[in-house]
Amino acid sequence: MAVSAKAIKTRIKSVSNTKKITKAMEMVSAAKMRKAVQAALDTREYATTAWDLLINLSKTEKEGMPLLEVRQVKRLLVVLITSNRGLCGSFNSNIIKKTAAQLKDPRNLSMQRARNGHIEPNENLEVDVIGIGRKGADFCKKHGYNLIASFNTISDKPVLEDVMVASQMIIGNYIEKKYDKVVVSYTDYRSAVAQEAKIRQVLPISEFDLEKTITELGRDEDLQDRTLSKDKQEQLNEYLFEPGKKKVLETILPRLVEMQIYQSLLESSASEHSARMLAMKNAGDSANDMIKELNLTYNKTRQAAITQEIAEIAGGAAALS
Amino acid sequence: MIKFSVITPEKKVYENEVFQVSIPTTTGEITVLPGHIPMVSVLQAGEMRIKDKDGEHPYAVSAGFLEVRANNELVILADRAERADTIDLVRAEESRKRAEEEMKKAKAGQDVDYARLQALIDKEMNRIRVGNKYRKLK
């Protein structure tokens, strides 16, 4: 009898307590996930339509539109979207790992793709980070990346206003030429069990990157639809702008950038809750297995103790007679 | 017939074939009929009227933009759009009051986004106006 029955009993109790907690968290995340996923899917419609428009608009001449202007990258801004809370499996570590790998060698990330080849980044490239969600900000502080702002008050159910401050800061800084390129790293929601860490260019608005994102977004039947409509659009790309091209673009472009950031946040939020639900489910399952095993050991120990006691009594009785 | 859809960040509000749509834009109200050339324009908070085979439907829309595509497609991307008869007037009134109060508070302090608050007030005023108009008709 290696372990005392009492010790095992205590252990079983503590494991089942943990199980109760993970079970509760799983259920909470499941409910939150449903909402978050719905929100992400509902916004996808808007976002894809907006991107369609954005692609068409970005093909127009880039003169005088600061948000369309492609320039050599001296300063890069990375917006890192993570969760505020932990206990969500590998959700945060995946996105952080991916971003960190890129941050170690930011030259690739700061390449500007243009119609006529690439524009290499500047020699002394600087990288700043905006952290949305506490975990990402913590990571940056710990590893000495230049964190210029951190937003960690965003709720479980993000609304457009939540990202307004961040997006306005990003757009403002870009227009002032403080940054020459802005990328968002976020987790794309594919399904309840599959999420993918992604890095996507937000500014300058570039048709190359946008087309890539759309083909990624419209995975299934959407895809054929979209390529079809793109052909259609290419025939007639001359738009009438009312009241004026500059005015319209000035209103629309920032709005679409905000939308893109918002969409990334929603995808992240949906992914976070799915990841947490899965992690909690796994934890609950392991707790179950553990309890089963511990129960078996407990019963064996108990039985062994009884057997031994009988043996002792029998031995004692035999000694008396 | 125009293939018409109204999309907000929350959901697709309307999708159907329509005869004509009157839309409030920053340069005044425009009416889009079939065969319109491709156009992009900016929406203003106001009343949008859709004419389809079931008759005319009034909607309250707020900021956003519209895109007329080739092949008779019209897409409206609005921050918010709702049918006039589903507007909750009481709640609209409440949020207008809230926005106005915030505006008053903001006047005292500095560095507040007036434009955004004003837009919010306009939006709620518009909802109330459109909502009221069609409530009376019934």
Automatic annotation (TrEMBL), chain A:
Q: Keyword check for Transmembrane helix, yes or no.
A: no
The name of this protein is: ATP synthase gamma chain
Q: Name one GO molecular function term.
A: ATP binding
Q: Which family does it belong to?
A: Belongs to the ATPase gamma chain family.
Biological processes per GO annotation: proton motive force-driven plasma membrane ATP synthesis
Taxonomic placement: Bacteria, Candidatus Magasanikiibacteriota
Instruction: Name the PROSITE patterns for this protein.
Output: ATPASE_GAMMA (PS00153)
User: Where in the cell?
Assistant: Cell membrane; Membrane
Membrane topology field: Peripheral membrane protein
Q: Is-annotated flag, keyword Ion transport?
A: yes
Cross-referenced SUPFAM superfamilies: ATP synthase (F1-ATPase), gamma subunit
Q: How does it assemble?
A: F-type ATPases have 2 components, CF(1) - the catalytic core - and CF(0) - the membrane proton channel. CF(1) has five subunits: alpha(3), beta(3), gamma(1), delta(1), epsilon(1). CF(0) has three main subunits: a, b and c.
Function comment: Produces ATP from ADP in the presence of a proton gradient across the membrane. The gamma chain is believed to be important in regulating ATPase activity and the flow of protons through the CF(0) complex.
Please give an example of a GO cellular component term from this record.
proton-transporting ATP synthase complex
Q: Which Gene3D superfamilies match?
A: 3.40.1380.10, ATP synthase, gamma subunit, helix hairpin domain
Name of the gene encoding the protein in the UniProt record: atpG
Q: Which UniProt keywords apply?
A: ATP synthesis, Cell membrane, CF(1), Hydrogen ion transport, Ion transport, Membrane, Transport
